[in-house]
Fold this sequence. Notes:
It holds the Pfam family UDPG_MGDP_dh. By secondary structure, this protein is α/β, with parallel strands linked by helices.
Amino acid sequence: MKIKNICCIGAGYVGGPTMAVIAHKCPDIKVTIVDLNAQRIADWNDENTDNLPVYEPGLDEIVLSARGKNLFFSTDVEKAIDEAEMIFISVNTPTKTYGLGKGMAADLKYIELCARQIASVAKDNKIVVEKSTLPVRTAEAIKNILDNTGNGVEFQILSNPEFLAEGTAIDDLLSPDRVLIGGGTDAKGQEAIDALVDVYANWIPKERILTTNVWSSELSKLTANAFLAQRVSSINAMSELCEKTGADVNEVARAIGMDSRIGPKFLKSSVGFGGSCFQKDILNLVYIAKSYGLNEVADYWEQVIIMNDHQKRRFAANIVKTLYNTVSGKKIAFLGWAFKKDTNDTRESAAIYVADDLLFEQANIAVYDPKVEDKTIFKDLDYLATRKPEENKEGVTIFQDPYEACKDAHAIAILTEWDEFKDYDWDRIYNNMKKPAFVFDGRNVLDVEKMRSKGFVFSSIGK
Ligand code: UDX
Ligand code: ADP
């Protein structure tokens, strides 16, 4: 079966870049990305690629290479479903904020809506691909809905989790470590798997395309994220011990990372991991484990989140303690709001929680981030519902210029590892700050000795 028409439901951080790369690499396949959010679609279609809704290095060129040729962004969900032989579901699956599993389980209402819509529209056989991260056995639920509400057409469900990391999405998509495709084990399932393998084989060597059963594929995604997050929590746990013992967490990370069994990646101590995946997926894993009565398994993974919360909290507490136990009325400049560099995504960013803690201490927070929009920052804080939106507006000011953000500040907190922070005129910043001029480097991006020699009272993570 040769795929000529692909539809992707959901034009977000995963759907947008992934489909743009498929279109770019497969000129013979028409790719249509649909979304209910008309503004988002308009932004994807914007002539000026600075207005694309997702910021990713290299994404603009990829979009420009295919848009209008074989890559289309549209709000006409039904037409795109009808035309496609293969439909990717790439909608959001946030943690549930209500009811059973609140705060832990993934909310699958958007997935279910997609499945129902596909079922009602499809007039011929379709391959439905889960791209969003989903709990194990979601494919079964999707299949159930499709088979029972559809027009008698046949559906094959594949799981094809996305492993791209934001900020490096385009490189990750162009040369992934592996592509994982899970599908049915019968002949028809195999045929569907082969159809998707053929799409990726346009640019990815076959030996890097891994095929498994659906459940292994779904669980592998959760497992990969849990392992990655666990490494960050593990090194962050050691960072606190380093601070007490005089060890340096960067040196420890280097020393252990040279052990080929451990490896050097994901050992950067930080103010805490963020992003739309790690916390959500681990909570989901914990929920699933609990639902099978596997309490020890659940507790084991939950500790990764507990450690991460502690790391964010103690960063904020250290600022308060160091500033003579009060930040009330003091300007604290935040450099960075995104959950990591090279993205405008702020979901679960440590900055949100550190800001929340400092607002409780009545600090005045001044934020500068090179890519995050002002309204996103307020939306993030308001979403916590820890105080009234007016109070967030009062406590937080957003700056377009880092030097203005830092002017007259009592302290600077670095929350994202944007490269540009290293190149600032730190003497100028120092001269314009209140003294002592405190810097709290939550990402260990600045040179400690250099900063201290300029006069800053400098504190980093794990040193
Ligand atoms: C992650 C997975 O890496 C990716 O495979 C999956 O598809 C989605 O989730 P992402 O969340 O985009 O990707 O970024 P990632 O690079 O994994 O970083 C997640 C968080 O961990 C960021 O806040 C980052 O700053 C933090 N981190 C990462 C550290 O604090 N230290 C590290 O060593 C690595
Ligand atoms: P991710 O990081 O997983 O890509 P995003 O929130 O960035 O998540 O994107 C998910 C997108 O899916 C959003 O733009 C949302 O509007 C869209 N979406 C959710 N449900 C539907 C649906 N039933 N039909 C079309 N689009 C949907």
